[in-house]
Design a protein that fits this description.
globular, alpha+beta, 99 residues, 3-stranded mixed β-sheet, two-stranded antiparallel ribbon, GMP Synthetase, Chain A, domain 3
Length: 99
């Protein structure tokens, strides 16, 4: 069974295609729930509610998680509370965006 850190590491390979920075460093991942039987649920938001790439980003994240040993199913739940703000950027995200 993967750890939360391993899930976050693989999610660093998933970029927001409009911004070009991964979802972890953008601060979009709000939680990782590792369940019995190898099911992983990730609570994630987007930078804006009308993001046209929401389906692509969430499916790409699910496929990335499903590459981890022991994962039988991954599900990304898009949540809007709390709303995303630039304060959620990691130091690496700030660096990548030139802040």
């Amino acid at each position: 069974m993967p750890t939360e850190a391993e899930v976050l590491d693989v999610l660093k390979e998933v970029d927001d295609p409009e911004i070009g920075v991964n979802v972890v460093d953008l601060g979009l991942v709000y939680g990782v729930d590792i369940r019995a039987g190898g099911e992983i649920e990730v609570q994630m938001t987007l930078t804006a509610p009308g993001c046209p790439m929401s389906g692509t980003i969430s499916r790409t994240a699910e496929m990335a998680i499903e590459t981890l040993d022991g994962v039988t199913r991954a599900h990304v739940a898009i949540v809007w509370d709390p709303p995303w703000t630039p304060d959620r950027l990691t130091d690496e995200g700030r660096r990548l965006l030139g802040f």
